[in-house]
Amino acid sequence: MMGYSDEFKTHLASGATTLCRTWAIMRSDGAVFGFTDHDVNLTFEGITFKADSGLTAMALAQSTGLAVDNTEAIGALRDAAIKEADIEAGRFDGAEVRAWLVNWADVSQREMQFRGSIGELRRTNGAFTAELRGLTEALNRPLGRVYQKPCSAVLGDRACAFELTAAGYFAELAVEAVEERQVFRFDALTGFDDAWFARGRLIGQSGACVGLSGMVKRDYFDEQTRVIELWAPMRAPIVAGDMIRLEAGCDKRMETCRLKFNNIANYQGFPDLPGDDWTVVPPSQSGISVGGSRR
């Protein structure tokens, strides 16, 4: 019971406890959802934890050291709680999860038992199962620089430092025509070079796709119509009239960084790194290794 308050310790030692579990899920868009296995709603930390959500949790596996804590949450898909469309759109991917053991008779007596994020999320037959990963999961991610010719930064991130809000590097406009959530056609998208948005992003600004994004595969002209094709369909319905934002793309080459973005000072690649052909060149047989031409 290390870490519990004195009042909570006294309650746990009483032999007649009034305990339940609660979970809070915060998505990247700021939406917060609260759940409890108690039979009435509970409220603390500005969150209402709903009792009718159908959410339950499996045993929490915790350990000392750097091993990853993990558990699973299982629940029914309900319009009032977690919607199937939101799961399909990926809105719960990577969402923050917190779990408490709570005295429902006095919610000030509680202890957080888990904090992490949603990992793999599966849904079937009107229900979902979410894998919950502890904070030590971040230690499994590879860190450090990669020595390669192309730039290793993501356009606009901290390493790149380029401002995608600069004039000429984005466009905000309404969808004119869309095919299968993947191919967009515009008659009024002018003022940008051919392929300007290739490898960039399309971000939903309104409608069912608000906050969702897709990577641009191709940006080209079909006669007078400009076509923006994504690598994969948007994960929610998108229709004519919905507002979107298009951001310029980067192919990671030094020439693009210098000429298109004027950002060569932040280029994160190694353009002079020898290629594979250089590494397999056999040693010289002539005995002359001064670097000059042979005569």
TrEMBL record:
Name recorded for this polypeptide: Bacteriophage phiJL001 Gp84 C-terminal domain-containing protein
One Pfam family it belongs to: Phage_phiJL001_Gp84_N
Ranges for domain Bacteriophage phiJL001 Gp84 C-terminal: 196-277
InterPro entries assigned: Phage_phiJL001_Gp84, Phage_phiJL001_Gp84_C
